[in-house]
Amino acid sequence: MPSEQNNKPKLSRRQFLTAAGGVTFAVAAGAMGFKYFAEPGKNKKTLPDQEITAWVKLNPNGEIIFYNPAAEMGQGSMTALAVIFAEEMDADWDMVRIESAPVEPDTYGLQWSGALGGPMLTVGSRTIRGYFQALRHAGAQARNALLQLAAAHWGVDIGQLSTEPGTVVDAKGKQRISYGDLAALMTDTETSIELREIPESAWKKPEEFRLIGTDVPRRDIPAKVDGTAQFAMDVHLPGMLYGSVLRTPVHGAKPTLKNETDIRKMDGVLEVVMLDHGVGIVADNYEKALKAKRALQVDWSQDAQAQGYDSEAAFAKYQQLARQTTADSRKVSESGNYSGAMRGAQKTYDLEYRNDFLYHAQMEPLNAVVSVTSDKKSAEVWVGTQGMDGSRKAVADALGIEFEQVKFHPCYLGGGFGRRSMSGYVEEAALLAAKVDQPVKLIWTREDDVRYGAFRPISVQRMQAGVDETGELVAWGHYIAGTGGGLLGSAGKCDYYSLPNHRIEVRNIDEGVRTKHWRSVSHGANKFAIETFLDEIAHDLGRDPLNFRLRLMREHPREMKVLKEVAQMTDWGNAAIPEGRARGLSVTDHGGSFAAGVAEISVDEQYKIRVHRFWTAVDAGIVVQPANTKAQIEGGIVMGISSVLQESITFKDGAVQQSNFHDYPLLRMADVPEDIEISLIASEGAPSSIGELSLPLVGGAIANAFLSLTGTPLRHIPFRPEKVKAILNA
């Protein structure tokens, strides 16, 4: 095998080929730090029935199979990643087929710390930006390899060759050969090629793109429309059994089952499985599993850390924590002389903002299918997960076997939003399947998912600021207190605002409740506090919110451009706004992207806030798929409106009080804005975050529109009608 340091590994014909006469392109190492994926058989230790070694396989019929490393949960990344590779390969898009990559993070993991080989984890809007450079490089290598083959076949200099979609062209010799014919040619010759390092300067320039930046139809949509797309829920195996689990109502409590004998006698029940956090049932159909679960009589231990936790009462504790300057704190950012600037300010502000826990509410409840061999030495898994290698490892660890002994089949996901980056549900399925000699499909009900969810953290955010005699911000303090640990502080720092004297801290109390990454993590809560606070200051000073922000962005031209774009879209300050309505402005960043948004709202006689229109301007670098990007931004806005106006999880005595959508309401179609307008600002920077960018705009934009409409601030999301009524009638 060539050394990883070798920039020009030579591949013989035998090394270059895989099964069925196809050519599989490896990815060479070099100055860019991309891992070298070597000879056929590298993966045979772990995936004996797989004969691929890299990203793409070219068949003699011209078909190009791209191996997708990311979860497809409706965000369109499966198509986008293939587009990136196909762009640099100069592939004929009609000949591209997409299959799931093997769950081998050393080969297919994200670009992490500068190199491929990180986790196969679809979170944080990292997918496109995490694979963009590597896939362009790999595509350029594949194209160069085909040019080498054609040059050798024709006996010409490679420099006189070029490519068109799916074809190598020799303009001088007036010759053409398809990629498929080159693949067939490779099976019949002993041609040797070099898989070369292709410098970025030799890649396509943005003006040369023909796939990137165009609206290529998503490949997952037809299968989802005609029903052939496979979710784990669709998997049916011979002899398959069904599993259900009764989980503790208070996280950390342990079960004691009082009626196991009676449960085992119930019709269809084949196994009862004790878990650390609950009791599992395996039955011959799902209805019988649910009936047995309902009949379980369980005593739960009373020593869980979360025992007695009351989320409403906890706000007073978090409020106190946010005001304890001597409390243990984690600094997010600090610069200048914040305390001195506050003391010297002509006027100071000190306000608080709050947010409740939020449930992920993904469309598809959790489920997985696991089959364990009778000797318990290997397993096979079908699951939709955001963390493929993490889930594969979880099954291996649960069964006490090696990672390589778990055969993994990634399935489509009916939404994730961070919830499916956890692997507990897959581990449960494995533990149930290990008790029987048949495959088990574990299905969570919606009630299971709500009551044993992992939530976006609750918090109190104390905001402080000082202004000088000209109204210029001279001091900025932000103290985030709650439960959620490292999840609390995301987006606390605003690099696009010039705040020379600032202090931003997180103060956490571990309450023993389950918290997790939620779409945009805490950006939604933190940007709400930041942007609403800014408008309250501007309102008090009699300043226009747009000009107030532009002044703060004076050293950040990229962000100013985005803000000015949304102002132009809305004709800010000049537009004729319908009677009874008002508009509010908000900005946010996420993963290298920047967005500005404006909401137009009204409040009806029942104190219900209605968002009529929403405008957004976005700079997210190179946009791979414009229509899909806009769909992601629209989805984030709608989800943001739902979370800001309606959604709330509360705890009493350590247990979640909600159970389904009757008491955890989501936005309905009738309440979606009549119009959502999006402007994508042209940029040549590398692609950056899209999926989680727009949601954090919503809270501030709605609150600021409400302030403009009523002169009254909203400081606690969600803004349900009863809360709005109390505020307006106070």
Automatic annotation (TrEMBL):
Coiled-coil region(s): none
Xref: Pfam families: MoCoBD_1, MoCoBD_2
Domain of life: Bacteria
GO terms for MF: oxidoreductase activity
Gene3D superfamilies linked to this entry: Aldehyde oxidase/xanthine dehydrogenase, a/b hammerhead, Aldehyde oxidase/xanthine dehydrogenase, molybdopterin binding domain
Aldehyde oxidase/xanthine dehydrogenase a/b hammerhead domain residues: 226-304
Designated name of the protein: Isoquinoline 1-oxidoreductase
